[in-house]
Specification:
alpha/beta; two-stranded antiparallel sheet; 7 strands; about 55% helix
Length: about 200
């Protein structure tokens, strides 16, 4: 089975989820690795067992992932983050495969992930889009959205691959410093480019 897969990535606060939502409105299936990862962390016993084994009993409260506790552990330590990813990402990959199989016929799929490169998921993408924004803008957006302190946000931003590395390995770069209408116009433009590319290459599901 052939399918055309678009990877959308960017640091937290870059606007990748909002950008992905414009494609979803057009009927393009979007898989959010970050959202699904959190669901799987609460659902899969093997994930729970290994997270508790390496990060302690406080990682779960009332059988639900203790996000604030775990975030403090992994976003200050790249090695801890890598360990958490090694526990969760194999299940996310399997979940993504099952998700693809469950979808109806479509022109292409989108995989949205903050850790697209860190997880290795970029290797399966036919086209990679990276959203960037100045650090101060990303911090401001996340503070409003997640009610986090600036130092907490900085820890999370700094532990991810630098934007220059993402940009170097991406096909399309979007600097998200304007209003929502700008992102929507970019999504419409890229949607047309993708469809043209699919029919030109004859790569459809």
């Amino acid at each position: 089975m052939k399918y055309f897969l678009i990877g959308i990535t960017g640091k937290m606060g870059s606007g990748k989820s909002l950008f992905s939502s414009f494609f979803e409105r057009k009927g393009i299936p979007v898989y959010s690795s970050d959202k699904r990862g959190k669901i799987l962390m609460n659902k899969i016993d093997d994930i729970k067992k290994n997270i508790i084994k390496f990060f302690g009993e406080k990682s779960y409260e009332k059988n639900r992932i203790n996000t604030s506790f775990l975030s403090e552990k992994v976003f200050k330590d790249p090695i801890a983050l890598k360990l958490l990813c090694s526990i969760v990402h194999p299940w996310v990959f399997l979940d993504f495969k099952n998700w693809i199989l469950s979808q109806k016929k479509t022109l292409y799929f989108i995989r949205e992930s903050a850790l697209l490169f860190e997880s290795g998921a970029y290797k399966n993408c036919d086209l990679i889009i990276t959203l960037t924004s100045p650090m101060e803008i990303m911090i401001e957006r996340v503070m409003k959205r997640d009610n986090l302190k600036e130092d907490q946000i900085m820890n999370r931003l700094n532990v991810q691959i630098p934007n220059r590395e993402k940009i170097k390995n991406s096909n399309i770069i979007i600097e998200n410093i304007q209003d929502i209408s700008f992102l929507e116009k970019e999504a419409k433009k890229i949607h047309k480019v993708i469809i043209s590319k699919i029919y030109k290459n004859g790569k459809r599901r």
